[in-house]
Each structure stands twice: as structure tokens, then as C-alpha cells.
Write a structure and sequence with these properties.
- By secondary structure, this protein is α/β, with parallel strands linked by helices.
- Helices cover about 40% and strands about 15% of the residues.
- The protein contains eight helices and five strands.
- The chain has a five-stranded parallel sheet with strand order 1-2-3-4-5, covered by helices on one side.
Length: about 170
């Protein structure tokens, strides 16, 4: 039996009630994906080095919350670079929780800090949706991203009870 479609969800004005902010918390990444860096060596990292805002500054967090409340943002998608290597990620996560802002994380799942962050989230009883980017096969993952499919991260996330979406 199929579920009926909620037509309100499909309406053009749905975004007025359910706003998602996509927030890049950093410009650093632990991979060298061909679609981010193209033929240039480390252009993403060079961009971050030349930027005054390579990381989302802690001083802007309060303004971010004010803006979310002002325009009715009810969820933030944390992205980057690679958000799991954002130097203030634990603190920022607790800040979002304290301010009752739901969030998701878009990650490659290959950061050395990934499993530790999952344990931190579990300990703090914070359950964001994890959007894990990967390629379809190990060969494609190695060629395009320079790494393996993040199976260990995804298994750990699922074992700890996190909703984990795979973006291929």
C-alpha cells in the first residue's frame, strides 16, 4: 500500500514554512576530488589560504542564529570543504543544539575525525542526518576522490542510530 502524497509539501510556497540553510563552515577538505579541484593542484586549499574566512568564525555564530530566526530557517545543512575537519565542529554542534537549530551534515565520511565525531554526537544525544557522498564503485571513488568508499564511517553511523543518506 502506498502512502498518500502530501500535496502541501509539493506546493511552491512550502519553502516559506520549511527553510533549509546550506552553510559552508570551512573551505578545507581532506580529499582531492577531481570535480572540486579540476586539473589544478590543490586549488580548493589555495582558495582557503587566500580567504579571510577560511573557517566560519565563532564570532559570527550569534548572528547566524539571529538570521535563522528572522527568516524562519528551521534546519541547517553543514557543508564545506569537509565539515568534519572544521576546527570548532564540537563547539558549533553544541551551540546549534543549545539554540534549538536542527542540522544535517554533508560529508565525504573519510576524515580521521569522523568516527570520533559520531561518538561525540551519540554522547551528547544529537542526531543529525548524515549525508555521505561517495562514488558507486571503489575504482570510481579512487579515481575521482582519491580515497576509498567510506564504508566504516557509514556502518558506524548506522550502528549508532544515525539516519545516513548516501549521495552517489
Amino acid at each position: 500500500m502506498t502512502r498518500p502524497i502530501d500535496l502541501k509539501y509539493l506546493a511552491q510556497n512550502n519553502h516559506l514554512e520549511n527553510r533549509l540553510m546550506i552553510l559552508s563552515v570551512n573551505q578545507k577538505c581532506n580529499l582531492k576530488c577531481s570535480y572540486c579541484r579540476g586539473d589544478m593542484d590543490d586549488w580548493y586549499d589555495k582558495l582557503a589560504l587566500n580567504s579571510k574566512n577560511a573557517d566560519l568564525p565563532k564570532e559570527s555564530w550569534a548572528e547566524l542564529i539571529r538570521l535563522c530566526k528572522q527568516i524562519n530557517v528551521n534546519e541547517i545543512l553543514l557543508t564545506g570543504g569537509e565539515p568534519l575537519i572544521y576546527k570548532y565542529l564540537h563547539e558549533f554542534t553544541l551551540f546549534l543544539k543549545h539554540n534549538k537549530i536542527k542540522f544535517q551534515i554533508h560529508t565525504n565520511g573519510l576524515s580521521k575525525k569522523g568516527i570520533d565525531y559520531l561518538s561525540f554526537l551519540k554522547q551528547e544525544e544529537i542526531y543529525p542526518i548524515l549525508n555521505v557522498s561517495s562514488e558507486l564503485t571503489n575504482e570510481m571513488q579512487e579515481k575521482i576522490r582519491g580515497g576509498s568508499i567510506p564504508i566504516k564511517f557509514m556502518e558506524e553511523a548506522i550502528n549508532l542510530g544515525f539516519k545516513t543518506d548516501i549521495k552517489i
